[in-house]
# Entry
Amino acid sequence: MSDQPVALITGGNRGLGRETARQLAAQGYYVLLGARDLAAGRAIAAGLEGSVEAIELDVTSEAHTERLPGVVERLGRLDALVNNAGITGRASYGTSILELDLADLAHVMDVNVAGAVRVASAVVPLMRERGRGAIVNVSSGMGQLSDMGKGAPAYRLSKTALNAFTRVLSQELAGTQIKVNAVCPGWVRTDLGGPNASLSVEEGVRGIVWAATLPADGPTGGFFRHGKAIPW
Ligand SMILES: NC(=O)c1ccc[n+]([C@@H]2O[C@H](COP(=O)([O-])OP(=O)(O)OC[C@H]3O[C@@H](n4cnc5c(N)ncnc54)[C@H](OP(=O)(O)O)[C@@H]3O)[C@@H](O)[C@H]2O)c1
# Structure
């Protein structure tokens, strides 16, 4: 087995995913950069320093996630999984939850929740064989029950569900050294966050990289922003 740690990042071709790939590669990780458009992913990977390999990965595609165990087996290890891919859906801040288009809700849940479950189901059994690693579910304060607001209802529901997935999986993996945490990056200037957001991608990614590189005695089953625990 190689000494080089391996990380898989979904939605690695832009925004927080791309910056996570850049920072983990700079730390010496072999980065599997998941991208729906493989050619675009390869172009991004080629522009990053270090070991970065693009793989075709639409998290709604079982044909894609079924290939993941083979990729991980070829590399011999998986140290970090960053479930970053996410969408807001068509429902905006002005959309009432009572007017939510349920097809839109189903699509957002498929990407933001089932997507993370699909990818984890494909690779966590291999992570489990080594008994250690880190899983980071990139969540949002908009899924925080303790601070729930209105607007963007599909996104809010999906991130609360992603937080629940974090808790369930962390319980299932209790007794291993696999850390499972949800991370809110803060409000970050990406296509999703918009140009008025308060944080740069470099700043937003710090807490994601922190959770992806936790030591064996690090926390699990938590919700963090910038490395600090926040309420669910
Ligand atoms: N930016 C913020 O302020 C903020 C705040 C809190 C949480 N977050 C969370 O951070 C994560 C990354 O967001 P971002 O701001 O970097 O957004 P972004 O710039 O819009 O990037 C989203 C990424 O997700 C990918 N993606 C979308 N659907 C996918 C699918 N079905 N399969 C695989 N990849 C898919 C996109 O790929 P394509 O290029 O192919 O579309 C893109 O790489 C999301 O989970 C988001 O909810 C962001």
